[in-house]
C-alpha cells in the first residue's frame, strides 16, 4: 500500500511543532516580496497592470475588465437547470441562517440617567474575491454575496480570475445576477486584491475585502490591511481540513472528506487524527482507491504529499492536537461527537458525526464557508452577517445622569493626568448645579409625570360600565338561566347557544406566560382595530381633542379618529422613515392625547429606532401606542418587555400575521393594568366569539409551531427581495422587517400595478402615501406565489424593453 500522507505514530507533544506547521510557511518571504511587486505595479499602471498580469499569470487576454450587462444576462442560459435549482436552494439556506443573525439591540440604562446603545451600520463598499482558476468557486460568491446583501452594503464589487478565453465562468455570473450584483471584474490573484485596495479606472476602491484564495491572495489581503488601511475579513488562504476519527468511523467517509479538501489545490492540507491503528490503515487504503478515480487526482496527490496522518493515544490528545492546529474545517467522525465538540476552542467550522461531511458546509447547509486558515482560527471567526456591518455605539445623559456620573469620570481622568477630560465633565456638572441651563433645554426637558386619570375623558371616568350576566356570575352551574340564551340552539356538533366568557380568561391565561406579562396587562379585541378605536374613544373628546400619526403609516389610526370626530396631527418621518429628534420635540409640545407608532411600519416595513421611541415615551404626555402587528418578523425585542418602565405605553399585536390566523380577527393590546381596566370598562360586552376563543387556545397550544412559520416567511422575503433587486422595472427594494416589501418601480408604478392585475396578481398600490411615490407594497406569499410575482415582473420588463421611454403606458393592454 502506498502511503500518500506523512504518517506519525504516537509523537510526543513536545515534537508536535513541525506537525502543526502549514506547508506554505517556508515560502512566505518570497510570496510577500512578489505581492509587494504586484501592488506597486497596480499602483502605477492600474487597469493596464491588471491586463498584463492576467496575460502573464492566467494566460488570458482581457480587453474589457468589467463584465458587461450582456454577459451577465447571457449567463443563465449557459447554466444547467438542475444546477440553477441547486444554487437557489443553497442560497435560500444561506439566507435563512444569516438572516437569523440580525439583532436589534435594546438601549441599556447603565445607571439612572445614563443610556447607551449600539446600532449596526453596513460597510459602505465591499470587495468580494471569488477564486476562479482551475475550479471556479461560485459557492464563495453565494457565501459572501448573500450576507453582504442582507447587511445592506450599498456597493458590492466582485473580482474573479478570467478564464483562458478572457471570459468569467457563467456559473459565477449566474450567481452574481441572482444576487443582484452588477459590478464584476475580470481580475484574480494578488492583483485583484491590490485593485480593490487601491482602486483603478475599472475597479472601485473598497473599504473591506472578503474572500479566500491561495497564499498570494492571503498575503495580498494582509498587505492591504497593514499598509493601505483596508479592512479584511480574515487571513483565508489554502483550504484545509482536520478529521478526528475513532474506531467507529467509516474509513470510506473519512477518506472522501480528506480528498474533498485535497482537490482544492496543491497547497491545501489535510490532517487525519485517530487513536485507532485499524482506522489509520483502512483510511490510507481508501485514500489510495478513491484518489485513482478523481479527475483532479494530480492536484489532490500533491496536496496529500504535504498532509499528515497522526496516531495518538486517546480523545484527550486528539482534542489537544486539534486545538493547537486550529483547523479551518474540523470533522469529528467519532461515536460521541457532541461530547468531544464541547472541548473545541479553535476551529473555523465544526462538523459533527459520521453523516456530516464538510462538503455540506461548503455549499448548502447554510453556514458560511469563508473561514480562517493557517491557524488563524485561534483569533478569527468565519464570515457572518456581522462581518459586513460596523457596530456604532451611542450614549445620552440626562441632567441626573451627568450629576451622578461626573464625579466618577473626573476622579479617573485626573488620576490619568487628562485634566481636559475631567474639565469637560466638570463644566456640565457645575452648570447644572448653578441652574445655568434653561429648563426647556432638550438635555433636561422632562415631560410631566404621566396622569392616566387626567387623560381619560371625564364622561368615561364617571360612567357606569355595562355589566353582562356572565360578568356578574363567573363559571358554570347546573341550570344557567341568567343570560336569556336559547337553550335549544346548536350548529351541527358544535354548541354556540351560550355566551362566551366576556373577559376571555382562558385565552389570557395561556397568552400571559408566552409573552411574559400578567393576564391583567392583556386586552383582547376583534382585530387590533378594536383597541385602536377604543383607545381613541377612551381619551379624546369629540370635536375637541386630537391624535398624532406619522405617515406613511397604518390607515386605521386616522379612520378611528375620523369616526370619533377627532382631529389628526400628521408629523413627519425622516427620508428613511425614522423618528427624528425634531419630531420627538414636536410631540413633546403637542396636546394630542395619543401618538400612534407602527414598528415595523406599514407600508415601509422598517423598525423605528428604539432609542427615539423611548425618548418619545419619556417626553410625550399622552399614550404612546406601538403597533407591533409585524413584530414577529423583525427579531427585535418587543416593547412589551418595557411596560413596567413606561406607564403610558400600549403595545398592539395580532394573530393575523405571524400566526397565520387573519380570518380569526384576534388583536391584542398590552398595557398597564390601569389602562387595560379602562379598555375593559368601555368594550362591547361579548366582543370575542366562543369560536375565536377556542381557536385561539388551540393556536396557543401549538406556539412551538410559530418559529417554523416565521422562518418560511423570512426565507420568502429574502428570496423575493433578491429576485426583484435587479429587475429592469424595479428601482429600489426597501429593507424590510415585516412580511412584505415596499418596492419602488420605474417609470410608472401604477402601470406596473395594472399590468400585474391583468395577469391575475394583486398587490397594494401605495403611490399616494407620503414618501412612497412610485411604490407598491408586495406581501410575501408562498414560494409558488413569490415565483409567479417575480416571473410576472420579469416578463413585464422583458416584453416592454422600451418601458422607460414609453412610460409603460401599453402594458395593461398587452398583458
Automatic annotation (TrEMBL):
Its EC number is 2.6.1.9, 1.1.1.23. It comes from the Bacteria. Its cofactor is pyridoxal 5'-phosphate; Zn(2+). Substrate binds at residues 239, 261, 264, 329, 362, 416, 421. Zn(2+) binds at residues 261, 264, 362, 421. Pathway: Lipid metabolism; Amino-acid biosynthesis; L-histidine biosynthesis; L-histidine from 5-phospho-alpha-D-ribose 1-diphosphate: step 9/9; Amino-acid biosynthesis; L-histidine biosynthesis; L-histidine from 5-phospho-alpha-D-ribose 1-diphosphate: step 7/9. The active site is at residues 328-329. Pfam families: Aminotran_1_2, Histidinol_dh. NAD(+) binds at residues 129, 191, 214. The keyword Protease does not apply. Residues 494-793 form the Aminotransferase class I/classII large domain. The modification N6-(pyridoxal phosphate)lysine is found at residue 657. Binds 1 zinc ion per subunit. InterPro entries: Ald_DH/histidinol_DH (IPR016161), Aminotrans_II_pyridoxalP_BS (IPR001917), Aminotransferase_I/II_large (IPR004839), HisP_aminotrans (IPR005861), Histidinol_DH_CS (IPR001692), Hstdl_DH (IPR012131), PyrdxlP-dep_Trfase (IPR015424), PyrdxlP-dep_Trfase_major (IPR015421). One of its GO terms (molecular function) is histidinol dehydrogenase activity. Coiled coil: none annotated. It catalyses: L-histidinol + 2 NAD(+) + H2O = L-histidine + 2 NADH + 3 H(+); L-histidinol phosphate + 2-oxoglutarate = 3-(imidazol-4-yl)-2-oxopropyl phosphate + L-glutamate. Belongs to the histidinol dehydrogenase family. Belongs to the class-II pyridoxal-phosphate-dependent aminotransferase family. Histidinol-phosphate aminotransferase subfamily. Catalyzes the sequential NAD-dependent oxidations of L-histidinol to L-histidinaldehyde and then to L-histidine. PANTHER family: HISTIDINE BIOSYNTHESIS TRIFUNCTIONAL PROTEIN, HISTIDINOL DEHYDROGENASE HDH. HAMAP family: HisC_aminotrans_2 (MF_01023), HisD (MF_01024). Homodimer. This is Multifunctional fusion protein. It comes from Hymenobacter caeli. The gene is hisD.
